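Convert to structure. Protein one:
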Amino acid sequence: RIVFLGRMVPAVRSLISIPAGMSRMPFWKFMLYSGLGTVIWTTFLACVGFYLGENQDKMHALMSNVGNMVMAIVVIIALCFVFK
């Protein structure tokens, strides 16, 4: 399950092979879960790209909102550190 879900998490995707190898996970099992996770993640990204590619204005609005949320989170974390 970890390999399957790890293929869908951006920061973990490239490193999930290390713990799988260290735990001596059977190769066929690793390839099955890794392949399924990769196919699902790639299909999701392709669908998002296809949808947003046709709607550049919606993509710009979405990314603007995400950027604002990230900035708000960074400011809140910085304020927490300052007040501690």
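Protein two, convert as well:
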Amino acid sequence: MKKNISILLIAVILIGVLAYQLFQQKEEGEIRNSAALEDELAVHYIDVGQADSTLLEVDGYAILIDAGDWNSTAAIDYLKELQLEKIDIAIGTHPDSDHIGQLASIVEQFDVGEVWMSGNESTSNTFISTLEAVDETGTDYYEPRSGEVFDVGPIQLEVLYPEEITGKANEESISLKVTFGDIRLVFTGDAGIKEEQNMIDSGADLDAEILHLGHHGSNTSTSRAFLKAVSPEVAIYSAGIDNSYGHPHAEVIALVENEGAEVYGTDVNGTIVLRTDGNSYEIETEKEGIAVEGKNRCIDLNRASSAELQEIEGIGPAFAEDIVKSRPFVSLEELKEIKGIGQGKLEDIKDQGLACVGE
């Protein structure tokens, strides 16, 4: 009888130990699952006026896509407010001063692991200062190409464009697809409609929940075909309040909304932050606002792309190329220095009310 009691007692003890171990494993599993849910990707579409700058933060990693305008410290100020110290990859999608504007200062003031640029060059002081900062700090430099895939902590970066460069700075912007769990985001800098089609033709999977509208919502980007390929639930653009370019353009906003996407813009919403656990996402805005087409539009001879310049009646590909080569302009009158543009054509251009000269 005593023997049976002893066996029973041992069995009870063993069952108790087993139950405790299972309980502990369950508790540890819950803790691990909770920690996994805390690994959140935050995407900050920073309000930098008529420029671009987006910060991605996840699990101790930080990626900066563009760095605001050359004449504003808005991007740096925001990064400092976040008390950010290290940036693993700082990307200048193309050398325009409204995209790499503060990149030199960021390289100098933050611990930057790598700088990515397209390889297209510029004669601007902003571009030269950026290369000098990279060289002086010994920061690694890389020129990504389409088809390359990189893992940065828990997120994946797929390079969508360019495959090669030919000197078309805007059009050959570094374009990326970012994947975190089941949530995907697409960024295309100032890539144009032709380049969007090249991305489609490459066979890359462009489907994404979030699309950063190309070229500040300009009609030189975001074709219907590209929009259908991405099929976004949310579209976000970066533009300045009452900017002279008229960004975002009415037809782009209409197209995106007609395709069923929700639209946010830094001009009306301030800084926009998307947070996701890899399964679902939420959008936070600095202020309430509804995206509407821009006003007071002008095509700045000093900053417009070749495609935008050709929206001016009488300016074809050849004149557009000559205008780009002749920058900077101080006044519209200087257009007469371009062969083939006389006083009559200049007056026609002025009468359209589209051409202007900015800084």
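The first strand starts at residue 41 and ends at 45. The longest helix spans residues 2-38.
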